[in-house]
Design a protein that fits this description.
The protein is 32% helix and 22% strand. It is an alpha+beta fold and 498 residues long. It has 3 domains: 232 residues, DD-peptidase/beta-lactamase superfamily (Beta-lactamase, 3-Layer(aba) Sandwich), CATH 3.40.710; 143 residues, D-tyrosyl-trna(Tyr) Deacylase, Chain: A, CATH 3.50.80.20; 70 residues, no CATH class. The strands form 5 sheets. A 6-stranded antiparallel β-sheet has the order 2-1-21-20-19-18, sandwiched between helices. It has a 5-stranded mixed β-sheet with strand order 16-8-6-3-17, covered by helices on one side. Strands 4-5-7-15 form a 4-stranded mixed β-sheet. Strand 20 and strand 21 form a beta hairpin. The model has no long low-confidence stretch (mean pLDDT 92).
Length: 498
């Protein structure tokens, strides 16, 4: 080889090496920039969660990529926290997976008698496996379905019933409140009694309107008019100060007391006390609706548990079968409104379908079996009720993220994603993260009980990467919206806002 050829090859190799170095630099520079951006983001998040305002409290966080499994951020991710309504995440995930989005509750009306000359000689027996939808959330009026039943009975030739309206609530057991629920709030709608027969979500909405002048009368309008409950009013009315009205129900009774002070001309407000013994509420309202529709019932409405024998079950004939709206709509109401009664119903429905009795313990076994299949070890969490109202529940952020990740890989993912509250749009996130990149982006479940706050769900980055997150805080002494400011700002950062 001549000297010129050697030199030529040398310069070619130098040029190639230079191109390789330049190409490496062009790859290296974005990686460095990306790592710097990530480091800055983590520093921002650290500063938020280390706010001295919450030195007394305990945070748990995990943020994970749904696409790659990469952990973006975590802190105390394996520690145990009271989740509040984030407990609805395992309940609803299992219910959706077990039943599918098109499942419908069934309610039947049957009789143990016979029809002669337009008179039914026998009882009407109403049975359900927990349909919670007989309410204005699904119908124009809570009694609309009852009216449909009355018309159907008349179409079948029944104009009078010489018998009782019997409420068969035996699909569920008789434990009507959850383990660890506080006595303090049992008269409020969100702690309504759990039951297989549910009407008006087992509470009554009372609209209270102050008069225009101090000498006027307070207007009291329950959304259901029934003799099953009594309203007693002792409200002073004046033309100064703030309206302060208290509505409570005596434990074990259906006497509802309205007391306090109302300023004349003030805006109306709605209060929703729960009702004691939902079965009798259901059957009484059904009998009253039949009467309104022209079907006279001669005997009283009764709870099957109050009957001395089982002969009323003999030789029954089905008259009406009613299907609820589909699960996808019911679960949307459960998650977006954070409806405790719906969540408790799901756990018991699981128990009823699998073991023949809708008890919490039976439903718990079904939930725990699914969780184990999703990689959550038994006895490493506490699932004490279906809704999160109990303070006995304990979960880690990493466990909630694992459930959320399992649902991302589920065939029901589109439905699951849809039923979450959407930031700035609906549900319990309707008024949060408005006018930020997180608005319309974050889909998540909130959680609140005293000194406890939670938010777990999904956020999409500007690059289109879906992140799964769980934020839990226990022992805070601040207002809930002050903890929200921190979690919301983190989500705004992840959504590309800062």
């Amino acid at each position: 080889m001549v000297k010129g050829d050697v030199m030529k090859k040398f310069f070619v190799w130098v040029a190639l090496l230079g191109l390789m170095v330049l190409n490496g630099c062009s790859t290296f520079i974005p990686v460095v920039a990306e790592r710097k951006k990530e480091s800055e983001m983590i520093a921002k998040i650290d500063s938020l969660f280390n706010d001295p305002m919450f030195d007394h409290a305990f945070w748990g966080i995990q943020i994970k990529s749904a696409h790659t499994g990469k952990i973006w951020y975590e802190k105390n991710e394996n520690r145990m926290f009271m989740p509040a309504s984030n407990n609805k995440i395992p309940t609803t995930a299992v219910a959706l997976t077990h039943f599918g989005p098109d499942y419908r509750f069934l309610t039947t009306l049957s009789t143990n008698g016979e029809v002669r000359d337009s008179i039914l000689y026998g009882d009407i027996i109403v049975f359900s496996n927990g349909d919670p939808t007989l309410y204005e959330r699904f119908y124009y009026d809570s009694q609309d379905v009852f009216r449909e039943w009355a018309q159907e009975l008349k179409h079948q030739g029944i104009k009078e019933i010489h018998g009782r309206i019997i409420g068969d609530d035996d699909a569920f057991d008789d434990q009507r409140i959850g383990s660890g629920w506080s006595f303090d709030y049992l008269d409020v709608w969100y702690a309504a009694e759990i039951n297989a027969l549910q009407f008006n979500e087992n509470y009554v909405d009372i609209r209270i309107t102050p008069p225009f002048t101090p000498d006027g009368d307070l207007l009291i309008e329950p959304n259901v008019r029934s003799e099953y409950f009594n309203i007693e009013t002792n409200v002073a009315i004046g033309d100064t100060g703030k309206t302060r009205i208290r509505v409570n129900r005596e434990y074990g009774t259906n006497i509802i007391h309205i007391s306090g002070y109302a300023r004349a001309g003030d805006t109306p407000a709605v209060y929703s006390p729960s009702i004691f013994n939902p079965t009798l509420f259901y059957c009484t309202a059904l009998k009253e609706t039949f009467k309104e529709q022209g079907i006279h019932v001669t005997a009283p409405a009764v709870d099957c548990d109050d009957l001395g024998d089982e002969r009323w079950r003999d030789s029954t004939i089905t008259l009406i079968v009613h299907e609820s709206p589909p699960f996808r709509d019911i679960l949307k109401g459960l998650m977006k409104r954070s409806q405790n009664l719906y969540a408790e119903t799901m756990t018991r429905l699981l128990g009823y379908e699998e073991y023949g009795l809708g008890s919490f313990s039976n439903g718990q076994k079904v939930v725990e079996a699914y969780l184990e299949a999703w990689g959550i070890e038994p006895q490493h969490y506490v699932y004490a009720d279906g809704s999160g109202l109990s303070r006995y529940n304990y979960w880690s952020p990493a466990q909630l993220v694992k459930i959320l990740e399992s649902m991302y890989h589920s065939p029901y993912w589109p439905v699951w994603y849809e039923i979450q509250s959407i930031a700035g749009v609906d549900g319990t996130l309707k008024n949060r993260m408005k006018n930020t990149p997180a608005e319309g982006n974050v889909h998540a479940k909130t959680g609140t009980i005293a000194n406890t706050r939670g938010l777990s769900g999904y956020v999409t980055t500007p690059e289109g990467e879906l992140l799964i997150f769980s934020f839990l805080i226990n022992g805070h002494l601040m207002k809930s919206n002050e903890t929200d400011c921190i979690t919301d700002e983190v989500l705004e950062i992840l959504a590309g806002g800062k």
